[in-house]
Amino acid sequence: MDALADVIKLLRLSTVLLGSMSARGRWGVRVPEQSGPTFYFVTEGRCWFRTNDSGPVELQEGDYILSARPLSDSFQNEIGAQTELSDDAFKARHTVDGEIRIGDEGSGPATRVLGGLIQCDPANADLLIGLLPRLVHVPATEKTAVRLRALVSIILEEAADSRPGREAVLCRLIEVMLIETLRREAAWSPHAGLLGGLADPQLAQALGHIHADVARGWTVEELARRVGMSRSVFARRFSEAVGVAPVEYLLGWRMALAKDVLLRGGNTLEEVAETVGYQSASAFSTAFSQRVGCPPSEYAAYLRAARG
User: Fold this and answer.
1) Which of 115, 94, 102, 100 is nearest to 40 (CA)?
2) How many of the other CB atoms lie within 10 Å of CB of 69?
3) Nearest to 65 by CA among 158, 142, 138
4) Tens of pLDDT along 37-89?
5) Residue 14, burial from CB neighbour count under 10 angstroms (0-12, 13-18, 19+)
6) I want to staple 224 with a disulfide (CB 3.0 to 4.6 A). Which of 149, 158, 234, 292 is the partner?
7) Does residue 62 sit in helix, strand or coil?
8) What are the pLDDT digits (tens) for 138-147?
9) 17 φ, ψ to 5°?
10) CA pair distance 124, 256, nearest whole angstrom
11) How distant, in Å, are the alpha carbons of 10, 208, 255 from that of 3?
């Protein structure tokens, strides 16, 4: 089983296009805080980008940025340029023909940036944040950037249309875009978490076993044996790479699946418990309450309210 694909599928992704911006001369904008990860694509020109907790990153035409926790992302034509919050009032003043236009129209070539918000179902929003590095910058010179550019182009085309199946197509496109980004990160700079585990072939096998049979009573010994490692070495490498012990990861994945089932509804508590490896509804309810902070029924009601 592909653990990364499993997680992406569980997130049930969608996107909201934040729009495009054209800027000339001396300029700077701050993006309002967003409810989820945000991607940006420089379609023309160059600029500087920074988050609330990182230094400036120079972007060129064709560069791609994914900001996992966009609290105050900003773009500037040069370091030190004053920024203005791009709120609704700002957009109303500067939008022309569906594009935000700022700076001096008669001053030099334009820089254009496209932005989009990645959304997921509330049940496992924490999974998405935990999966993503704080900031991903894919330069235009990389092969991955070429593939991402093609995906963004199709996303734009699909979002602007109203053909049947539009939402389903957009969801799949966002999934592919995110997988492309994360595959690149796993190869270039894996960090503690699922990507860290997937970067190690033996640990990736272990994660695949867990995802393929989540209801199984996996032990560290059995997982280590399945991937040809000693128990102690496997436990240490797994904890260092993934950030949690193997059994802790198993329990976390069980709860993620359970929350997804509760979100969709239509299953009894006994059925949910059996699906994720618990012998009784009471045992599942106790485990769920300990990890999530409330009983399954209460959490299901919260999820329904969050979805509106």
Assistant:
1) 115
2) 17
3) 138
4) 999 999 999 999 999 888 899 999 999 999 988 888 999 999 989 999 999 99
5) middle
6) 234
7) coil
8) 999 999 999 9
9) -75, 125
10) 6
11) 11, 6, 15
